[in-house]
């Protein structure tokens, strides 16, 4: 049975401006559900599992076509530059005034190596996700394992080739930070860290902590910057989603507590400890 959420509360009043389009958007409407899955997809992606999953638990889809020639029937992002960041930010800008209670940003393929606690299947992961934890925290990374980007995303313990290829962005980060956050470059954190890999759940209230114009500015930077290539821009955004959504620069929850909070596996641990999951009362 589909779950229909009540009419969402009005967002804070914001001065709005449009993002320059490379092409016109198709009409965008999303039913008023309490959960929406947001995903970038190419023509080769199979998101049939998402349709089946939403039919089972009650949610809506916001799939963005990332092909150069847009795939009919899907949402079109403002830019294709930046990989999933283009789709994620386009969704926030497009639907800022009509966000569901929970937006879940995920990759299109069901099997992802970085899904950890309940296996590699994203549908299994989402079935186990405690939305009480999402409500309590506002923003949660769907991965609990700290490696490879905690506690220092610029210097992972076991760097992959792309970590070495794009390490130059660390030197550019203060200037990038200033552009993204409209803040002095001196305020850029020296160290950043959070679990990888660009999949997270967030409440509309957490998104609304920033005005829409902040997301417009970040999206415009993604669309127009020449500091790196398509991969490098997405590589950078993956490292700072938690900062964009108001978390500390180093946001590396203890694995066991994350597993308990998000997926309800609270022990007993090998040492006999039984953890207590976060609740809405802990907000």
Automatic annotation (TrEMBL):
<dbReference type="InterPro" id="IPR021838">
    <property type="entry name" value="DUF3431"/>
</dbReference>
<dbReference type="Pfam" id="PF11913">
    <property type="entry name" value="DUF3431"/>
</dbReference>
<feature type="region of interest" description="Disordered">
    <location>
        <begin position="1"/>
        <end position="21"/>
    </location>
</feature>
<feature type="compositionally biased region" description="Pro residues">
    <location>
        <begin position="1"/>
        <end position="13"/>
    </location>
</feature>
<protein>
    <submittedName>
        <fullName>Uncharacterized protein</fullName>
    </submittedName>
</protein>
């Amino acid at each position: 049975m589909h779950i229909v959420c009540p009419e969402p509360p009005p967002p804070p009043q914001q001065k709005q401006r449009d993002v320059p389009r490379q092409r016109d958007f198709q009409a965008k409407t999303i039913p008023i559900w309490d959960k929406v899955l947001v995903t970038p997809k190419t023509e080769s992606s199979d998101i049939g599992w998402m349709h089946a999953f939403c039919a089972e638990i009650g949610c809506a889809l916001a799939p963005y076509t990332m092909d150069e020639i847009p795939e009919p029937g899907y949402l079109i992002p403002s830019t294709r530059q930046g990989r999933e960041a283009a789709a994620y930010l386009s969704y926030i800008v497009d639907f800022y005034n009509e966000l569901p209670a929970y937006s879940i940003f995920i990759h299109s393929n069901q099997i992802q190596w970085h899904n950890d606690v309940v296996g590699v299947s994203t549908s299994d992961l989402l079935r186990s996700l405690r939305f009480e934890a999402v409500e309590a925290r506002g923003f949660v990374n769907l991965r609990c394992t700290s490696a490879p980007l905690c506690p220092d995303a610029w210097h992972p313990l076991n760097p992959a080739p792309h970590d070495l290829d794009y390490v130059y962005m660390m030197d550019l980060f203060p200037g990038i930070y200033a552009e993204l956050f409209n803040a002095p470059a001196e305020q850029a954190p020296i160290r950043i860290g959070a679990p990888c890999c660009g999949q997270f759940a967030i409440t509309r209230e957490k998104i609304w902590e920033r005005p829409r114009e902040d997301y417009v500015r970040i999206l415009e930077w993604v669309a127009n910057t020449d500091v790196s290539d398509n991969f490098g821009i997405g590589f950078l955004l993956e490292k700072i989603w938690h900062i964009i959504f108001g978390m500390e620069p180093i946001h590396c929850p203890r694995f066991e507590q994350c597993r308990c909070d998000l997926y309800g596996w609270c022990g007993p641990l090998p040492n006999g400890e039984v953890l207590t999951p976060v609740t809405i009362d802990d907000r």
